[in-house]
Amino acid sequence: MSGFDLEKFLPYQLNELSRAVSGGFSYHYRERYGITVAEWRVVAHLSQEDAVSVREITRRVGMDKPKVSRAASRLEAAGYVTKIANSNDKRLVQLSLTDKGRAMIETLAPIAQSYDDTLREMLGEDFDAFQRSVARLNSAISARAET
Q: CA–CA distance from 126 to each of 27, 69, 71, 130 (Å)?
């Protein structure tokens, strides 16, 4: 047997942490609004700007284009987003929240903030150092991917 210890393998630990942390909040949007993690990520991103292209969301949230497009189509069918084709290039689609989508965000934002506060409390005085470490690791991985 190798000396490899899966439980101490950082990618495994981060994946498990991500799954647990996301699961703690996903219940709220899944049960209340029937949306998936991918759909939540699109809606949450759209809540930060007026209109965003599918291409830009794909780049920012780290999901592949087909997954973002499927999420956008489901959100449009549910009335949470509108799609607007670019007048110069019909392949380029801008997404924006509808009133119904904004109402969903208005309901979920305080729940998300409360959940974030709970996570911060769990780490206590270590939270800022943890957040800096996550940012540093993200930057290092991004820089490495660009070379």
A: 27, 38, 35, 6
| CA 97 – CA 43 distance, rounded (Å) | 7
Q: What is the enclosing helix (H) or strand (E) of 94?
A: strand 93-97
**pTM for this entry:** 0.84
- Evaluate whether 80 touches 100 at the Cβ level (below 8 Å): yes
The answer to whether residue 119 scores a pLDDT higher than 90 is yes
CATH fold label, 6-146? Arc Repressor Mutant, subunit A (1.10.10)
Provide the token pair at 98: 């509808």
User: Using an 8 Å Cβ cutoff, are 61 and 45 in contact?
Assistant: yes
Which of these, 117, 105, 119, lies nearest to 32 by C-alpha position? 105
